[in-house]
Amino acid sequence: MNSQNQMAIYGIVVALFILAFGEYALHFWLFTNPAKWVIIAFKFYKKGGIGIRILCVILYPLCFTFQNSTLQINNYTLFKKNHRRDIIGTIVFAISAIAWIFIHKNPYPIFFFPLLFLGVLIGGIFLGNLLKIKPENQKKIPNDKQSIETPYSFSFAGSNGSWVNVPDPFRGILVIGAAGSGKSYSVAEPIIEQTAQKGYSGIIYDFKFPSLTDFAFQQYQRSASQIGFYVINFQDLNKSHRVNALDPKYIPTAAYAEEYSTAIISNLMPESIQKKDFWIRSSTAMLTATIWYMRKHHPKYCTIPHVVNLILSEDYNDLINLFRQDYECAAIVRSIITAIDQKANEQISGVISTLQIALARINTQEIAYVLSGNDFSLDLNNPQNPKLLCLGTSPSLVEAFAPLISCICTVALKSMNQQNKHHSFVLLDEAPTLYIPKFEQIPATARSNKVVTIFMAQDLSQIEKNYGMKEAETIVSNLNNHFYGRVANIKTAETVSKIIGKADKIIKTESQGSNRPTSLFETNRGSGSSNQGMSITLQERQIIHPQDVFNLQVGEFIGTTVGATNPNFYTKLRRQKPIGRNLITVKGLPTISKNYDILLNFNLIISECKAILKGIEIN
Question: What SS3 state is found at 465?
Answer without folding.
Answer: helix
